[in-house]
TrEMBL record:
Pfam families: NAD_binding_10 (PF13460). Residues 6-172 form the NAD(P)-binding domain. Gene3D superfamilies: NAD(P)-binding Rossmann-like Domain, UDP-galactose 4-epimerase, domain 1. It comes from Streptomyces sp. R44. The lineage of its organism: Bacteria, Bacillati, Actinomycetota, Actinomycetes, Kitasatosporales. PANTHER family: PRESTALK A DIFFERENTIATION PROTEIN A (PTHR43162:SF1), PTHR43162. It comes from the Bacteria. Transmembrane segments: none annotated. This is NAD(P)H-binding protein.
Length: 274
């Protein structure tokens, strides 16, 4: 049995679909099954990383676990090991490599170390920017044809969450990935200006990018993110390191299929912007 944490999210949701499509035995974890909106025939388990004892039932009979960073990994992983889990694929971040001292690098690094110490088999996925972060523009697109963001000309190789999921699925279901650290990117750098145009093309509208200041963006983000994460995110978006802008062959090397472009992500997710 494979347990997918974050099954209602971008990566876990894709992973759940892919594992079901190949007929793998799979269970979805959520804090609230009633609100999860998962298909009726999915095996769903309730549990919360904040209270690891709540995960005992979800972990029961599980051999392989797809795990996300929670800030409580040591206790979560102990609970998993107690329940007999043998392998963990952890969704981490490129920031562990590129910005180990930033908040984002630190929390993901701590998660990796907790999993390493568990004695279980592990694989770490270290993606950079997700294509799905642009979902945050949906409210602006609902109101008009202009999307305002800072750093409109800064390109990052945004990765399709379905490709992260495909790497996770491979590591969860095939041998040969234990101890691997996979840095993941999309197939080409894409700027916010280009992302806005691609979403417009996907929904059949002429959308336009307008430059906002980092201060304006920080004020908007402060509504749903702690200040230290806002600062780290804006630093990453505005001044990426050479390592953060590199295009990596990992998705294709691991899955046998090329990484999908941002335009493909926009087409796959057009309904979220209509
Ligand atoms: N966005 C990026 O650019 C980026 C880049 C690198 C790495 N990452 C990593 O990717 C992660 C986000 O992945 P995503 O976009 O797929 O997630 P997401 O769409 O933001 O969804 C979050 C998921 O986490 C689950 N969750 C949240 N708190 C939980 C808790 N206390 N106990 C159990 N489950 C909990 C939620 O499930 P329920 O609500 O159903 O319980 C939901 O399925 C980040 O945390 C980060 O570690 C992101």
């Amino acid at each position: 049995m494979i347990l997918v944490a974050g099954a209602t999210g971008n990566v876990g949701g894709e992973l759940l679909r892919q594992l079901r499509a190949e007929g793998a035995p799979v269970r979805a974890l959520t804090r609230d099954p009633a609100r999860a909106g998962l298909p009726a025939d999915v095996e769903v388990a309730e549990g919360d990383f904040a209270t690891p004892e709540s995960l005992a039932k979800a972990f029961s009979g599980v051999e392989s676990l797809f795990l996300m960073m929670s800030g409580n990994e040591t206790a979560v992983v102990e609970e998993a090991a107690r329940a007999g889990v043998r392998r963990i694929v952890l969704l981490s971040s490129v920031a562990v490599e590129t910005r180990p001292d930033s908040l984002i690098g630190r929390v993901h690094g701590e998660a990796e170390r907790a999993v390493e110490k568990s004695g279980l088999a592990w694989t770490f996925l270290r993606p950079g920017q997700f294509a799905s972060n642009t979902r945050g523009w949906a409210a602006q697109i609902a109101q008009g044809d202009v999307v305002r963001t800072p750093f409109g000309q800064v390109g990052l190789p945004a990765v399709h969450p379905g490709d992260i999921a495909a790497v996770a699925r491979t590591a969860l279901t095939r041998d040969g990935h234990d101890g691997a650290v996979y840095a993941l990117s999309g197939p080409a750098p894409v700027t916010p200006v280009e992302q806005v145009a691609a979403i417009g093309a996907a929904i059949g509208r002429e959308l336009r990018h307008e430059e906002s200041t980092p201060e304006e963006a920080a004020a908007d983000m402060a509504a749903f993110m702690p200040a230290e994460i806002v600062a780290a995110t804006l630093e990453f978006l505005g001044s990426p390191t050479a390592t953060e802008t590199r295009v990596l062959p990992t998705v294709e090397q691991v899955t046998g299929r090329p990484a999908r472009t941002f335009a493909e992500w926009a087409r796959d997710n057009a309904d979220g912007f209509r």
